[in-house]
Amino acid sequence: MNYLRKAVRTVRQESPILFTIALIHLLGALFCWMAFFIDDRTLYGINVWIKPLKFCISGAIYIFTVGFLITLYPFSRRKKNIINNIISWSLLLEVGIIVYQASRGVPSHYNQSTLFDGLLFAAMGLLIGINVLIMILFVVETVRLKLKTTKAIQFAIFMGWVIIVTGSWIGSQMVSQMSHTVGIADGGAGLPFVNWSTIAGDLRIAHFFGLHGLQIIPLFAFFLSLQWKASVRKHIIAVTIFAFLYAAWIGYMYYQASQGMPMIKL
User: Fold this and answer.
1) H or E segment and range at residue 163
2) Residues 97, 169: one domain?
């Protein structure tokens, strides 16, 4: 818990705008959670507020992660401010559209029912595209610069950025087919809360693990450095093996979904 408190303090002091936007996402999650119990409307068989709830939580985790990681880069104050502002406002608009569409009881993604819905979906694509460019920038900068951390953690951060870009690419595959699932139209039986299909392939699974590689791999490297007193070389080898196993898991999830097979068949 001490490390978490230190990380929260670091983000609040060094990346105040990202800290604020992450808090807004958490407040949005609380709002969606309360709405879940009040509003019984459904979409594709689940409550309309589940989707924005998931995006608010996921967005808060991503924004907080970037707010901490960017403090490790030897960027100028001006460069940090530009990056932080781009991420903050683009993701706030993105989640705002998702919450707004949920309040109307209509899909936020792949919705071309009206010109207005189509424009909102196009705007979401543009906002995510901007963030993917920022992710690619971080990939390049992680290779180019020496971060204020150990080599093993820097390599883990690099792999995290590479995998999140891959996860974003999987998101683009869903856009190209205008649905989450493979083999059936969106909807039907799914796992609780995440609603991943239990009867067909679901690209959201690989997309989810891809987007959260930025937390999982660096956290592995961080705890490894605390628990295992070994050489830098051994740490890098361990992080490399973990990162490639994680990437292989995503690859398998993507392959399974693209073949129309559910991760868990019920």
Assistant:
1) helix 151-177
2) no
Residues 6+ apart with CB under 8 A from 175: 110, 125
pTM of the complete model: 0.93
Dihedral of the alpha carbons of 170, 160, 219, 26, in degrees to the nearest 10: -50
- 21 and 96: one domain? yes
| Helix, strand or coil, per DSSP, at residue 190 | strand
Q: Are 217 and 199 in contact (CB under 8 A)?
A: no
The pLDDT tens digits for 159-213 are: 999 999 999 999 999 999 989 999 888 878 889 888 899 999 999 999 999 999 9
Q: What span, in angstroms and rounded, lies between the C-alpha atoms of 19 and 30?
A: 17
The answer to whether 56 and 108 are in contact (CB under 8 A) is no
Tokens of 244: 């490639």
Compute the average pLDDT of residues 66-85.
96
Supply the Cα-derived Rg of the chain in whole angstroms.
Answer: 19
DSSP state of 48: T
In the chain, how many domains are there? 2
Strand positions, DSSP E, the chain: 42-43, 46-47, 181-182, 201-202
8-state DSSP, 118: H
| Residue 131 CA, distance from chain mean position | 11
CB atoms within 10 A of CB 154: 21
Domain with 23 in it: 1-148
Give CA separation, 79 vs 75, 76, 103, in Å: 6, 5, 36
Distance CA 17, CA 51 (A): 25
Q: Is the pLDDT of residue 266 over 80?
A: no
Phi, psi of 46 (to 5 degrees): -125, 160
Same domain, 97 and 127: yes
